[in-house]
Each structure stands twice: as structure tokens, then as C-alpha cells.
Automatic annotation (TrEMBL), chain A:
Family assignment from sequence similarity: Belongs to the binding-protein-dependent transport system permease family. CysTW subfamily.
Cellular compartments per GO CC: plasma membrane
Transmembrane segments: 21-44, 78-100, 112-134, 146-167, 204-225, 250-269
GO biological process, one term: transmembrane transport
All residue ranges annotated as the ABC transmembrane type-1 domain in the record: 74-268
Protein name: Spermidine/putrescine transport system permease protein
Native source organism of the sequence: Sphingosinicella soli
Principal location class: membrane
From TrEMBL, chain B:
The name this protein goes by in its record: Spermidine/putrescine import ATP-binding protein PotA
Keyword Translocase set for record: yes
PROSITE patterns listed in its UniProt record: ABC_TRANSPORTER_1, ABC_TRANSPORTER_2
UniProt record similarity statement: Belongs to the ABC transporter superfamily. Spermidine/putrescine importer (TC 3.A.1.11.1) family.
Species, as recorded: Sphingosinicella soli
Length: 282, 378
């Protein structure tokens, strides 16, 4: 009976109640997440070949965590991500302040050139980096943290423009009268920057840093071209493991990376939504 | 509101000497000289883009004059940056620091000046009490209304005990009721603390109600510097007459100019008689300003009136009501004269039925006192 009851007409904005709309959204989500869910699910699969489900186990996580070369790669990745983030945030924030505050010749050109690493295909960046480091004769036999130098430099070049972008968009909402007010109350240029501009930039800096960190952590193409035999990063290691066979160990290692990225992205989004939510006067 | 305290020393607190500020080819401020006395409530009034804000920002130190000198309290400010000047500013946007509490905002300048924390605490409390924000110390700016944020900005400046407080359009962001209340409060506050206030505004009501003296600025020049009532009743030129209040302006020829009387022949309204001389060049082309509230209006049926202190027939005009706008306390009429010129006449509603005396298309006689017209030579 209910089925034939007179339906109340849908209000214009109630399109989410329409069946075709719901199934469309369902399909989109399915195609987006099915591969990832499969990957994570099969990391718990108790089978060497990893084609059919044989039962639940955490063995492969244990195996992955005990795989020395994998863990060294992970350590390399985290070190590279941390250091390149640190430098990217400083350079990126300074570039953002420069572009926001000053007028100078070729400003638009500078701005465009700075955004270039974002749009240039990674493969080109990778090849360019490889050629560059070979030409300048970048030393390849340095002890551990310094051996990562080439990769860190490469990562900084494509990470800092993202920081600049985020920080710059944050700066547009800054009320310059606040900085003048600080100076009017006796603050020097530096004190006004520290007490007024920097606190305003903070959410942008945090969001930019997390963005740079995740970008660096999971970069494959550019890293592949700049890493040597002693400087394998996590994504490059996973790739070399997959070339032999896709064991659950690879799944487990990838799942670990997914967890790490998801956590960092969540924090980044949280921070960004908070910075959008604060009232700014005008 | 008193103009100058009787005991005021003769030395001006701010002396602006031949100051010019050019942005490219445009002179935002064009060779302005003026003195501001200690304890004064001084207002820079003008339309937007007239250079008044630029002048204020030059006093604060955020703009550097292209030419000329700014002297504050006897010291040339030429190479003194904003953070070293004995003035403080309340910004148009208030510029309250959003990430600091009210207490932190108000105490900021004192912290920068490394004042002892116990003294900061007592001075901040004192300043908050002065602007009636006691108990708001722990609030954040986003928990305050616009009016309260402005009070924070005021307290933040006053706590520094500046020689001069600069206010940039202090009331423009407030609603009408709050603005009216704040006009009185600012004037009271100024009297209470005895600090010289220099305010920039484009709002003539604001200027007239608060100021001791007003400098009317137009196109980078001082059009007139006078007390509010003088600006209104004795404007020096056409711009000031038109900018301050509402006015009817007529072009005419000065036909009689003697020590005790003058007559201007205006084609649009007839002979305008003045009961005093104007000492203008004889037969010169002049403007005559006539305020709407100084024109008396009677129905045609009552017969042709005679204007007070005038020869028979002068200062009288005949017309027909073309428009009315009832504002409660007064009604403004648009009267089309027989010559075709439309002028404004305002009439106070002294009784509750006054607005019914006249209506559209009524024929009326207008007349005005011999002291009312203002002859303007420029």
C-alpha cells in the first residue's frame, strides 16, 4: 500500500533523494575506493600468491616491518620528507610574502616561473634533475644523511611552490591595517611581522607543510631519477618489489603508506577548514 | 563643545607646513598648511578622495610628504618612523588583532615598550574602564560587536597616552543609532582624557557634532577652516556652502554694495537684499546661498508678504509646490518658482498637524530675512 501512496513532490534542493543521483554517487565512490579497499584487504590475506582469499593474518605486516631494506627505504623517505618540508616551508613562505607585499620588475614572470614546477610533467622534472646533477657532478658517495641531498633538493623544487600557493592565498585575507596598527603602537618591522603577520599566516604554513610532506613522501617519478643504489625511498622500493611479484608484503607496505598519508591529509584538511572558518573583519 | 581651553599654550601640537603629497602626477595633498592646538577636537572633513586620509596618514607616518614639514610637539617628523611618533591611530577597520584577547590587544603597545607587567595590567584595566569595556578582557575579537571592537581599538591607542589621537573615519562602520551615541561619547571621552583628537570623516553631521574646529578639504586644498557653526552660517565659498548642509545656490550680479546693505540681482529668483555690505567688486558676478530652513512659506491666499528687514518687494518669491518629503521632524518642499527654477524649502513640524498645511500643487509665497542670504565671491 505504502508503495502506491501519493508521493510528496521533491523540493528543488532535495535531489539527493532521487534514486539515480544516489546510485551515481555510489558508483563514483565504488570506482574510487574499490582498488584501495582491495589493496588493504589483501594485505591481511594468508596466501603467498595473493590471488584468492585464504584467511586473515598479520604475518605480512610483521614481515614487512622486519624487511630491513624496506624499513631503510621508509627511513629515507621520512628523512627526505621532513627535511624538504622544512626548507620548502621557509622558502615558500618567504616567496609568498614577497609576491604579496612588493611590487618589482618582472613580478608576473617570477610568479609564473615559480608555479612552473607544479605544471611541468614530473617525468620532465625527473630527467632534468638527473641531467643537472650529473652535469654539476653532485657527489654520490657521501655518508648517509648527506647522500639524500640530491633527492631533497629535487623535492624542494617541486614542494615549495605548493607552500607558496597556500600561504599566498591565506595572505590575501590579511588586513594590512593590522600591521600598521602594530607599528603605530611601537612595534618595529620585525616585531610587527612576528606578532601580527606570522600568526595570520600560521594555518597556511601548517597546511602548506603537510601538503609538502605528503607530496615528498609519495613522490616516485622525480625520486626515481635522482636516487642512487644507496638512496632507495619507500615508493621506489615498493616498485622494485612489485616487479618480482605482488605479495601481501607489498600490500602491507603500501597500506602503511596509505594510513600515513590519510592521517596527514586529514590534519591538513582540519587546519584548512579552521582557517577558512575564522571571521576576519574586512 | 569648547574650541580651545582657556589655558592652552600658544604652541600648536601639530604644525603642518606647506605639505604636498603627490602620487605620480596627482597631488593628493596640495601645499596644505595648518596648525592644530593642544586639547583640540580637530576634524578633517571632505568628500572621498579629497586627500584628508592621506594627510592623516602623513601625520601618523605611514605616508611621507613629497614636500613640506610636519612638526609634532616641536619636533620635525621628517625621518621619524610611525613606531617612534608620539601619536596613535584608530584605524577605519579598527585593525584589532584577531588572535589576541581584548586584554592582549590593549596591552600590546605597552608590552612592546617593555612596561612592567603589573603596570600593564592596571593601565589596561583603566583603559578598558574608560571605553566602558570592563569585564570584556578575556573575550576574543570575533566575540565582539563592531561597536565593541572599535572601543578596543580606542582603548589600545589611549592606553599609550599619546599626545595626539588620530581617528580614521571612526563611525563609518556603525549603524545610525550607534553612530549618534558614539558621536557624543567620543566628544566626552576627548574632554575626559584631554588628548588632542584629529578625526577624518566624510560625514558632515559627524564633523559638526564633534569638532571644535573643522578643516574642509577639497582636491587636496583647505577650502575653509572654521568652527562648525561658522562653516554652516558663514561658508567662505561655493564648495563649502554646498558641501555642508543643504543649500539653494543662485548666480547673480552684485548691483548695490554699501556698508549697511547690498543687493544681488538674480535672474532665477529676483532681487535678493542683504542687510549688510559684502565689500565685493561692484557689478561682479557672484553666487548667493540660501539655506532651505531660512525661507518662510505661506499659502498664496494669505496675500503677498513682506520680508523682515528688507525694502518692500525684495526677498520675496512666488511658486508652486512640486514635491514634498516628510521626515518627521521637518518636511522638505520642492517649490517651482515662476521663473522655472526649483528650490528647496524646509519647514519644522511644530505641531502634529503642520504637515497638512501644504500639499502638492499649492501656490505659495516665499520670503526670507535680510540677514539670511550668503554672498559668495568664489
Amino acid at each position: 500500500m505504502k508503495l502506491f501512496a501519493k508521493r510528496t513532490p521533491l523540493a528543488p534542493l532535495e535531489y539527493t533523494k532521487k534514486l539515480w543521483m544516489r546510485s551515481w554517487v555510489g558508483l563514483v565512490l565504488f570506482f574510487l575506493y574499490a582498488p584501495l579497499v582491495t589493496l588493504v584487504a589483501f594485505s591481511f590475506n594468508d596466501s603467498k600468491r595473493n590471488i584468492v582469499w585464504r584467511g586473515f593474518t598479520l604475518d605480512y605486516y610483521e614481515k614487512a616491518l622486519n624487511n630491513d631494506s624496506l624499513m631503510i627505504a621508509m627511513g629515507n623517505s621520512l628523512t627526505i620528507a621532513f627535511l624538504s618540508t622544512l626548507v620548502s616551508v621557509v622558502i615558500g613562505a618567504l616567496a609568498a610574502v614577497m609576491l604579496w607585499r612588493f611590487r618589482f620588475p618582472f613580478k608576473t614572470t617570477t610568479e609564473g616561473a615559480m608555479a612552473l614546477p607544479i605544471v611541468v610533467p614530473e617525468i620532465c622534472m625527473g630527467v632534468a634533475m638527473l641531467v643537472f646533477f650529473a652535469k654539476v657532478g653532485f657527489p654520490t658517495d657521501l655518508p648517509w644523511p648527506f647522500s639524500l641531498g640530491a633527492i631533497i633538493i629535487a623535492h624542494i623544487t617541486f614542494c615549495f611552490p605548493f607552500v607558496t600557493m597556500v600561504v599566498r592565498s591565506r595572505l590575501t585575507s590579511f588586513n594590512r591595517e593590522e600591521e600598521e596598527a602594530a607599528k603605530d603602537l611601537g612595534a618595529s618591522e620585525w616585531q610587527a611581522f612576528r606578532d601580527v603577520l606570522l600568526p595570520h599566516m600560521k594555518p597556511g604554513l601548517i597546511a602548506g607543510a603537510l601538503l609538502a610532506f605528503t607530496l615528498s613522501l609519495d613522490d616516485f617519478v622525480i625520486t626515481f631519477f635522482t636516487s642512487g643504489p644507496n638512496t632507495i625511498t619507500f615508493p621506489v622500493k615498493v616498485y622494485s618489489m612489485v616487479r618480482f611479484s605482488v605479495t601481501p608484503e607489498v600490500n602491507a607496505a603500501s597500506a602503511l603508506l596509505i594510513f600515513l598519508t590519510v592521517i596527514l591529509t586529514t590534519i591538513a584538511l582540519k587546519v584548512q577548514s579552521r582557517m577558512g572558518g575564522t571571521p576576519q573583519g574586512h | 563643545m569648547a574650541t580651545l581651553p582657556a589655558t592652552a599654550p600658544k604652541q600648536p601640537i601639530i604644525s603642518i607646513r606647506n605639505v604636498t603629497k603627490r602620487f605620480g602626477a596627482v597631488a593628493a595633498v596640495d601645499n596644505i598648511s595648518l596648525d592644530i592646538m593642544p586639547g583640540e577636537f580637530f576634524v578633517l572633513l571632505g568628500p572621498s578622495g579629497c586627500g584628508k586620509t592621506t594627510l592623516l596618514r602623513m601625520i601618523a607616518g605611514f605616508e611621507v610628504p613629497t614636500e613640506g614639514q610636519i612638526i609634532i610637539d616641536g619636533h620635525d617628523m621628517a625621518h621619524v618612523p610611525p613606531n617612534k611618533r608620539p601619536v596613535n591611530m584608530v584605524f577605519q577597520s579598527y585593525a584589532v588583532f584577531p588572535h589576541m584577547t581584548v586584554t592582549e590587544n590593549v596591552g600590546y603597545g605597552l608590552r612592546i615598550a617593555r612596561v612592567a607587567s603589573s603596570e600593564i595590567k592596571s593601565r589596561v584595566e583603566e583603559a578598558l574602564a574608560l571605553v566602558k569595556l570592563d569585564g570584556f578582557g578575556d573575550r576574543r575579537p570575533d566575540q565582539l560587536s563592531g561597536g565593541q571592537r572599535q572601543r578596543v581599538a580606542l582603548a589600545r591607542s589611549l592606553v599609550m597616552r599619546p599626545k595626539v589621537l588620530l581617528l580614521d573615519e571612526p563611525l563609518s562602520a556603525l549603524d545610525a543609532k550607534l553612530r549618534a551615541a558614539m558621536q557624543f561619547e567620543l566628544a566626552d571621552l576627548q574632554e575626559q582624557v584631554g588628548i588632542t583628537f584629529v578625526t577624518v570623516t566624510h560625514d558632515q553631521d559627524e564633523a559638526l557634532s564633534m569638532a571644535g574646529r573643522i578643516a574642509v578639504i577639497n582636491r587636496g586644498l583647505v577650502a575653509q577652516l572654521a568652527a562648525p557653526s561658522d562653516l554652516y552660517e558663514f561658508p567662505a565659498n561655493r564648495f563649502v556652502a554646498d558641501f555642508i548642509g543643504s543649500v539653494n545656490l543662485f548666480d547673480g550680479r552684485l548691483v548695490i554694495d554699501e556698508p549697511d546693505k547690498a543687493v544681488v540681482d538674480c535672474p532665477e529668483i529676483g532681487r535678493i537684499y542683504l542687510n549688510h555690505g559684502v565689500t565685493g567688486p561692484h557689478d561682479a558676478n557672484v553666487h548667493v546661498a540660501l539655506r532651505p530652513e531660512k525661507i518662510a512659506m505661506i499659502p498664496e491666499a494669505k496675500g503677498k508678504p513682506s520680508a523682515p528687514e528688507c525694502p518692500e518687494g525684495d526677498n520675496i518669491a512666488h511658486g508652486q509646490i512640486r514635491g514634498m518629503s516628510y521626515l518627521g521632524d521637518i518636511t522638505i518642499y520642492e517649490v517651482k518658482l515662476d521663473t522655472g527654477r526649483v528650490i528647496r524649502v524646509s519647514r519644522p513640524n511644530l505641531s502634529r498637524y503642520d504637515q497638512e498645511d501644504f500639499t502638492w500643487d499649492d501656490k505659495v509665497w516665499l520670503s526670507w530675512h535680510g540677514s539670511s542670504p550668503i554672498v559668495l565671491l568664489s
